[in-house]
Amino acid sequence: MAFITFVLAANYYLCQIAFYNLSFPVSDRMKELKHLNKYFKKYRFKLLVGIFITIVARVFQLVMPSYVKKSIEVVEDFIKNDILQAEAKDLLLQYILIIVGAAILSGFFTFLMRQTIINVSRYIEYDLKNEVFEHYQRLSLDFYKKNRTGDLMNRISEDVNQVRLYGGPAIMYGIQTLTLFVCLIPLMFIKAPTLALYALLPLPVLSVLIYVISKIIHHRSTIVQEFLSTLSAFTQESFSGVSVIKAYALEPKINAELKALANEGKDKSMNLAKVNAWFSPLMILLIGISNIFVIYVGGQQYINGEIESVGIIAEFILYVNMLTWPVAVVGWVTSIVQRAEASQKRINQFLQEEPAIVSHTAKETPIKGKIEFKNVSFTYQDTNITALNNISFTINQGETVAIIGKTGSGKSTILDLIARLYDINSGAIFIDDLPIQDLNLKNLRQAIGAVPQDAFLFSDTIKNNIKFGKENSTDEEVVAVAKKAVVHKNIMDFTKKYDTVLGERGITLSGGQKQRVSIARALIKNPQIYLFDDCLSAVDTETEEQILNQLKKESQDKTTLIVSHRVSSAKNADKILVLENGKLIQQGSHDQLNSVQGYYKELYKNQLSKKEK
Ligand SMILES: Nc1ncnc2c1ncn2[C@@H]1O[C@H](COP(=O)(O)OP(=O)(O)OP(=O)(O)O)[C@@H](O)[C@H]1O
């Protein structure tokens, strides 16, 4: 009696804890997960079928225990000589066939259940990943500066996976458990109320303990996960920086650091393993207690004549075992819902981020290429650096303008503002005499062929890297622009020529080759405005000359901006802008600027004398 009181009290307190954990933030939790409702709505038919199948599968599962009971009763009747041997054998066979039939049907519907509900969770995962990725694509550069790449990756992979567990397994096991509870528990109480009470007593304890353990497991596995990303970031950096490591003979130092990290990782994994190890023993223990209750209390009741057959004891043992997993699932599902809520909250945070740069018009605004800066000032929000200070200039359509100035003087910033990667703080930028904000952003970006300072090439073939500028371009066009960018000969020297794969899976291009492939990519786009950001810095002066001549021909009616540190790249431009500390200190043609004292003339003299040496 004392033991029962103890178990009842334990159940009460544990249920209180679970109730507190579940009920306190329920509205908040559901608020975050509401985002998934649209997907549940989208797949409602499949979900409803899945739920129906789950119920059917469980109902078939219920057949077995009562027929086991009946089979045992047949044997009892035969022992008591109530029925003949042949009749008993017949009945036994009949019952066994029913059990086998029900088990097959239950198995079949369980298979269908997974095929429907788990598939729905995979569809939701697919949709959510696409939604997050598409949203990432819409967001402006400042978002990527604020958030670490690892975080972006985590939310689209690990967090979406946590949410998937809620959209699939949690629903599936939830329904399964509910069906079993609704059907089984009343059935048990109808058949033998006292026995039912004893059999079910330890189960809430099991449920709450599994919940507590799942939470600890999750906490520790998050630590392990986070640690693994640190470890992989470290190894990845060691691989990409392998040439520096070797050149400075840093191998022993790196090895020691990795060993220390690996040791730390081992300890964290051991911590996780320890708590994982509690899972099955606890289940076995509590189910064992339930079984012992059933056998002991059932046996006494049978002896006292309170239950009619031994079969009921066998039936109840089967019920208890049938309830084991669903009861444990209550705890597990609770922790899944909590994790899904936390993950969805993190996903929602990003989904609610609005792109800082948006198109204010949907109507088409074709671009010709006149650019005007009027008293433009611009400060980067994150660093608070004023990159441009009251800049004004005009570039007519088809003109070539060079921007020259010391490092950090704001040259690249001008190009970024023309592509509207950022919005300015004061002043105005006009493209074709229209404020840049009034242009259709898509039209603006389509009209620009930008070659950034750090040429970025994808791990793909050279051909596809160039075609990136114009997806439907032909191979002939690719070759033509590669020739103009003076990189064709280099490409033909590779064994696989234009099909040479770049990056991690393939060869590494030299800095100058990368720049020229990047130029070819801009040329194939055939845009109205070219933005070349110091993209000839890694080529020799002779090749630079050739490329500039080609570009001159190519960009005759296009507006072209060339950022450079070399006067050789600038001297043939229609106009040269000279920047210093974000201010425009000189502007004019080469001859004009070379005829007055100033930064440009000094630079020209310096570079000329270096060349002569
Ligand atoms: N994305 C950014 N976020 C914050 N600050 C930036 C960013 N880009 C540039 N800056 C800062 O703005 C200033 C101007 O940079 P910008 O890249 O325009 O100079 P630059 O003249 O092109 O230099 P370089 O010749 O070295 O490429 C620098 O002080 C730089 O540190």
Automatic annotation (TrEMBL):
Primary location group: membrane
Swiss-Prot/TrEMBL keywords: ATP-binding, Cell membrane, Membrane, Nucleotide-binding, Transmembrane, Transmembrane helix, Transport
InterPro entries tied to this protein: AAA+_ATPase, ABC1_TM_dom, ABC1_TM_sf, ABC_transporter-like_ATP-bd, ABC_transporter-like_CS, P-loop_NTPase, Type_1_exporter
Transmembrane spans: 6-24, 45-64, 92-112, 170-189, 195-213, 275-296, 316-337
CDD domains linked to this entry: ABC_6TM_TmrB_like
Presence of keyword Ribonucleoprotein: no
SUPFAM superfamilies: ABC transporter transmembrane region, P-loop containing nucleoside triphosphate hydrolases
Topological relation to the membrane, as annotated: Multi-pass membrane protein
GO MF annotation terms: ABC-type oligopeptide transporter activity; ATP binding; ATP hydrolysis activity
Subcellular location: Cell membrane
GO terms under cellular component: plasma membrane
Domain spans labelled ABC transmembrane type-1: 48-339
Ranges where the ABC transporter domain occurs: 371-606
Presence of the UniProt keyword Transport in the record: yes
PANTHER family per UniProt: ATP-BINDING CASSETTE SUB-FAMILY B MEMBER 10, MITOCHONDRIAL (PTHR43394:SF1), ATP-DEPENDENT PERMEASE MDL1, MITOCHONDRIAL (PTHR43394)
Name of the protein in its database record: ATP-binding cassette, subfamily B
Organism: Arenibacter nanhaiticus
Organism phylogeny: Bacteria, Pseudomonadati, Bacteroidota, Flavobacteriia, Flavobacteriales
